[in-house]
Amino acid sequence: DAKTAGRNGLRFFDPAMQTMITARAALEADLREDLKQERLLLHYQPQVDHEGRLLGAEALARWPHAQKGMISPSEFIPVAESTGLILPLGALMLKTACHQLARWSTDPATERLTVAINVSALQMRQKTFVEEVRAMVEQTGANPHRLKIELTESTLVSNVDDVIAKMDRLKAIGIGFSLDDFGTGYSSLSYLKRLPLDQLKIDRSFVKDVLVDPNDAAIAQMIIALSKSLGLAVIAEGVETEEQYAFLAQHGQLNYQGYLFGRPLPPADFESLARAFSPRRRSKQVHGSVDR
Ligand code: C2E
Ligand code: MG
Ligand code: MG
Ligand code: MG
């Protein structure tokens, strides 16, 4: 039969694979439609400084699917990347984040907060990317000094000079840059000093076992030392426990992001959290690096 047809090892029909291809095609079609209808949204996860003060949020894409409920980015970002849908997705998330920044700028509890968006390599490679960002900032009235961009090392695998030129133009209007998931990719250290970065993000995978795995601890310390010598800020992502926080805090004045400080939240919940952080109540805030 067709399944075993290939004497030469070729398979013309594999039901399991067929099911997978069909499911992926359906997901792609749904994503395309929901992007057109602008149904994807952003949740906001707190980022705090070494004293536990709220700096802002990372904006993380969320897809409320009509049948499947909330689908996680780890499921749909790869589909978006491989189909080119990451471009309309990125544009929608940029627009959503800029509108949110503009709204937050009118409330004392949120006016100083930054919003960091994730920008994929494919987006960054687009000729018109800088113009699109500039236009969106103008259109929405967002303060570009409050907008941050998180890039991953995959952005740097080709045409680094082009990436640097775009970063320079965006920096010129006030936008800051973090290198996300640092240590998991292939970026060479020689690029690092050429890139106009503001911050390195220690990947969650190193933070996770920082207390039990000496290699992860060494990598985390190396990234902290490297940031310091390059004059960059450093933020640890995926901090879930007081113990992880205490370990990292021994090694420098870091910024932090993780469930210990807050989960990604819908805008209204993030605003409540920001209000709880506002100056007068600062001594009561968070888990407490200030209270400690
Ligand atoms: P990322 O940029 O490294 O984002 C951090 C991820 O770690 C988020 O997952 C966040 O919810 C999760 N996280 C944060 N703190 C903790 C913690 O303490 N413990 C654990 N276990 N996880 C934590 P999320 O929201 O599922 O996003 C996954 C990835 O999807 C992101 O990783 C980013 O690479 C990508 N992504 C999300 N939104 C966008 C977007 O708008 N555009 C692009 N291009 N990529 C996006
Ligand atoms: Mg990120
Ligand atoms: Mg990350
Ligand atoms: Mg990560």
UniProtKB/TrEMBL annotation:
Boundaries of every EAL domain copy: 24-278
Keyword Membrane attributed: yes
Keyword Transport on entry: no
Keywords: Membrane, Transmembrane, Transmembrane helix
GO biological process terms held by the UniProt record: cellular response to nitric oxide
An annotated Gene Ontology molecular function: cyclic-guanylate-specific phosphodiesterase activity
Stated name of the protein: EAL domain-containing protein
Protein's organism: Bradyrhizobium cytisi
